[in-house]
Structures are given as C-alpha cells and as structure tokens.
Amino acid sequence: MDIDTAGELVNLGRTLSRWKFNWDKIWSDAITRMNVAQIAGAWSERVQTMSGKYPPQSSKGQA
After folding, report:
1. What's the pLDDT tens digit per position in 4-56?
2. Choosing a second label site near 9 at 20 to 30 A (CA), which of 24, 44, 47, 51?
3. Cβ of 10: how many Cβ atoms within 10 Å?
4. For residues 21 and 52, what is the distance between their CA atoms, to the nearest angstrom?
5. Cα(40)–Cα(57) distance, rounded to whole angstroms?
6. Separation of alpha carbons 25 and 46, rounded Å
7. DSSP sequence for 12-51
8. Cβ pair 25, 32 in contact under 8 A
9. CB 61: neighbour CB atoms within 10 A?
10. Exposed, middle or buried: residue 45 (CB in 10 Å: 0-12, 13-18, 19+)?
11. DSSP 62
C-alpha cells in the first residue's frame, strides 16, 4: 500500500469516527443525513477504485 492510499484510508477513518460520535444529530436532520449519504457514496467509490477490483464509476449511466 502506498502512502497516498494509506492517507486516504486514515481520512476515511476520521470521517467515520466523526459520524459515529454525532450520529443522533445526523440522523435527526434530513439534509445532514442526505449529505452524509452522498459523502458515503463517494467514499465507497474511492475505496472500490483503490482496491483495484472495480473500475472507476465516472461513466455512470453509459453503456
């Protein structure tokens, strides 16, 4: 694993920790909950791309 990938994973861990400690507040606000869902989706794509098992999702909706 290279240093850039390790740094990305550290940032993901920090994000998840912040969400965990603020989950009640996040869950009670629909806009915040939607923002978290969008960020989680972006992280999911990044992690899949980093894994090398899935191609980048930049061409969604195209055949």
Report:
1. 999 999 999 999 999 999 999 999 999 999 999 999 999 999 999 888 887 76
2. 24
3. 10
4. 31
5. 14
6. 26
7. HHHHHHHHHHTHHHHHH-HHHHHHHHHHHHHHHHHHHHHH
8. yes
9. 4
10. middle
11. -
Q: How far apart are CA 16 and CA 20, in angstroms?
A: 6
The C-alpha torsion from 59 through 48 and 42 to 38, rounded to 10°, is 100
* Local structure of residue 63 (DSSP, 8 states): -
Length of the chain: 63
Half-sphere exposure of 35 (CA within 13 A, CB side): 11
